Amino acid sequence: MNKKIIYQLDGRPSLTQAIPLGLQHILAMFVGNVTPLIIISNILNLDLQTKTSLIQCAMFVSGIVTLIQCYPVGPIGAKLPIVMGTSFGFVPAATAIGTKYGIQGILGACLVGAIFQMLVGGVVLKHIRKYFPPVVTGIVVLTMGISLLPTGVNYFAGGVGASDFASPSNLLLGTIVLITVIFFKQYTKGMLSISSVLIGLVVGYIVAIPMGKIDFSSLSQAPLLSVPVPFKLGFAFHIDAIIAMIFVYMVSTVETIGDITAITNSGLNREAKEKEIIGGVLADGLGSLMGAIFNVLPNTSFGQNVGIVSMTKIVNRFVVATGACILILAGIFPKVGALLSLMPSSVLGGASIVMFSMIVVSGIKLITTDKLTERNTMILAVSLGLGLGVAYVPGFFDSFPESIQLIFGESKTVLPAILAVILNIVLPKEEFISENIDLSDDLVKA
Fold it and tell me: Are 116 and 246 in contact, with CB atoms under 8 Å apart?
């Protein structure tokens, strides 16, 4: 068996390699995949049985759509190692819609929004791809990584809202995981090195047991086998809810383009192809459509897993597809999902800090793919200075309409991306500047 195959996009490594490396991806995204549904279920006061069913459906749909991203169905899918999951980005809009129209209103808006995203991916993207050179896509990836850093730190401290947030025990547990990941990544070779995230998570999980941070009693309550049921909660369609959700889908599309670009740049050392971006966005839309059908929030590409690819350079599709199969099994066998969901947030945080930071580094590398000219420097400076600066000022958009708040108030990526695209269009190209300078010199000499 060729051990280098895991660093290649295609090919089939042995299951002894694929299973642990695929599990590494699933453990990294598992908490982030189910938490949005837990939040919405609590806000809407859904009963325990419904909440459990939603979590199960979320895992099942994520696994199916991840497989489609890895092994496309026609034009749908990027043919890249992209892990899909339920996005936190939809929680604010879903909360507002759910409070007004209930879970049916959320699902109806998600259904229409998913169709809109597929139309964007299939019709619009190929006409605007030229407006996303490395400096623009690099800014998207960089701001995406920066926006994830607080999430990693919050996990590290025990999770937002935890009664023991930032307690010494949580910080100790997160630190143990962080040190474990660094040690195995830097001081070992082969499978131990490339599985450093998985090893760190497993070590943290085991250490958390005697610390009293894991309660296994819930395992007995989970059924052994349960098949996800589509169309269980129904749909309701309201124009204001649909418009609000479409705005969030636009944000999700930008972030998906960033994820695809980061994976190809950090894992394959090249820019993303137009076919990969269009296929990835189409899969985003299809996954969100399936999510609505199976009663859960929209699916999108996960930054956590982009960080793993950036860190390990493992881009093999079969590895991620193996992880997708584990997700599907977790959706069909609830005890598997329950066992994974018991992982303390601080354990995930210890690994996430490294993974999210790797996305930042990928963004920097992508930006510097082209020469950092005065023009590109200006695009970078304004996009980060105004776009990212505004995003981190609480309440900046409070006086704006709700639709504007949904677009710019929650995502830290959208405004920098829009500014980067606009500046890339309006600022004169370097060739034009050089010609003007040469012409001025000629006039002076004359």
Answer: yes
Q: Answer whether residue 386 shows pLDDT above 90.
A: yes
360 neighbors 145 (Cβ within 8 angstroms): yes
* Six-digit token string for 93: 């809009």
Q: Torsion-angle region of residue 99: left (phi > 0), alpha (psi -120 to 50) or beta?
A: alpha
- Cα–Cα distance, 315 to 9 (Å, whole number): 5
> What is the CA 394 to chain-centroid distance, rounded?
23
In whole angstroms, what is the distance from residue 48 CA to residue 59 CA?
17
- Dihedral of alpha carbons 19, 20, 21, 22, sign: positive
Q: Can you tell me the mean pLDDT for 169-190?
A: 95
Question: Minimal CA–CA distance to 228: which of 54, 68, 31?
Answer: 54
Backbone angles phi, psi at 273, to 5 degrees: -80, 155
What tokens were used for 422?
């606009």
pLDDT digits (tens, 9 = 90+) for 185-227: 999 988 899 899 999 999 999 999 999 999 888 787 778 888 8
DSSP 409: I
Determine the average pLDDT of the residues in 290-303.
92
With tokens 């660093």, the residue in question is 7
**From the centroid of its chain, how far is CA 168?**
29
| Token reading at 56 | 């199960």
pLDDT at 295: 93
Residue 408 · residue 248 · CB < 8 Å: no
d(CA 69, CA 422): 30
Cβ-count burial of 162 within 10 angstroms (0-12 exposed, 13-18 middle, 19+ buried)? middle
173 in helix, strand or coil? Answer: helix
The DSSP secondary-structure symbol of 413 reads: S
At 299, is the secondary structure helix, strand, or coil?
strand
